[in-house]
Amino acid sequence: METGDVGPGLCCASFNQDSTSLAVGTKTGYRLFSVTSVDKLDCIHESIETPDVYIVERLFSSSLVVVVSQSMPRRMNVYHFKKGTEICNYSYSNNILAVRLNRQSLVVCLEESIYIHNIKDMKLLKTLLNTPSNPSGLCALSISHSNSFLAYPGSDTIGEIIVYDANNLSTMTMIPAHDSPLAAITFSASGTKLASASERGTVIRVFSIPEGLRLFEFRRGMKRYVNISSLSFSPDAQFLCASSNTETVHIFKLEQHSPSGEEQAPSWSTYVGKMFTAASSYLPAQVSGMMSQDRAFATVRLQMAGQKNVCALATIQKLPRLLVASSDGQLFIYNIDPQDGGECTLVQKHRLFGSDKEWEETEKSKLMEPPQACQSYAATVAIPSSGPVTATLTGYSEDGGAKKGEVIPEHEFAAGPVCLDDETEFPPVSIR
């Protein structure tokens, strides 16, 4: 869900679990936006206390936000942003590459280990050590209460996916998804579907969870390999969008074709489809697989190419929309035709930081400067900090574990659990 390439002033961007909020990390701090209207983008919170924020994650529409800064890339801070209070912090044995949240768990991903915390009290429940090298911090956590699943790479050479039950703390299945290493994975809202793409970026596959059966296979393109940076299901899991470093965002429709010909009106396409299905059993796997792959249902032509972005499918003001947050600090909102698909229509774009004057100066400087290669997500967080980040960090542990850092006490919290403003969203966090 994040963008790792640093744009002018923008370090990262992520949508919350139901795509009603957008969080962005900047060189001066972070901002939280409400994405519930097309024409208006409300900045509901801005913090300038922590510079160079490269991870910022908000839990649904609650007051809980997790922040990681380049100045302390091994430390995670958990804040109650409406009260301006730190709930707690944890430090780890290596740089934090990703953080994922749902109503039960908080997951921290390092390059070769994963930590699962209970979000009620931030207690460390499980440490998955010696996981396959994962320099981009690729992982996904489902948001369903009953299907709280974690997915992460099972290999650094091929596209294997480990599906882990974050409620029962046990491995569920391993899915051999792709021949090349994984580039993107995401769960549907119910946790019953998992989409994946490999580093080649040509094929996107959707699997059933927990069985791991392949349900759909979509071809993004054959002409060139691309870096798919973002995958996202619609709330009803009927659509899946994919964005990459190209100018095109693809939207695929997940529709099950009728199992029997009798239910369909006879047509030339039905007849040809039957012929292909019958012939596929006699053809090489590569060829028969090509026959079963579907093209994009709808597409978007972005105004820029070569930039990393994050996309989400959401229902805003009762209509289906595609949201694209780009690393140059813009949010694009498109209309989707759920019946006919085709080219989506841009209805609004918003700036995520800076004044009009700052934005004009940035645009001018971009035109004058030669293009530069963007840093990878891992390279960004591996930048040596200017501050004294040493093994004396509070809570640092040499044995690969995570220890609770200093908790800043507040008189109002001392009597019991931290009461966040919207307790219907998730259980309150207890401070010990």
TrEMBL record:
Source domain of life: Eukaryota
InterPro entries given in the database record: PROPPIN (IPR048720), WD40/YVTN_repeat-like_dom_sf (IPR015943), WD40_repeat_dom_sf (IPR036322), WD40_rpt (IPR001680)
PANTHER family, per database record: WD-REPEAT PROTEIN INTERACTING WITH PHOSPHOINOSIDES WIPI -RELATED (PTHR11227)
GO molecular function, one term: phosphatidylinositol-3-phosphate binding
Coiled-coil segments on the chain, per record: none
Record key words, sorted: Autophagy, Lipid-binding, Membrane, Repeat, WD repeat
Topology term for the membrane: Peripheral membrane protein
GO terms, biological process: protein localization to phagophore assembly site; response to stress
Annotated SUPFAM superfamilies: WD40 repeat-like
Family the entry assigns: Belongs to the WD repeat PROPPIN family.
Subcellular location: Preautophagosomal structure membrane
GO CC annotations, alphabetized: phagophore assembly site membrane
Record-given protein name: WD repeat domain, phosphoinositide interacting 1
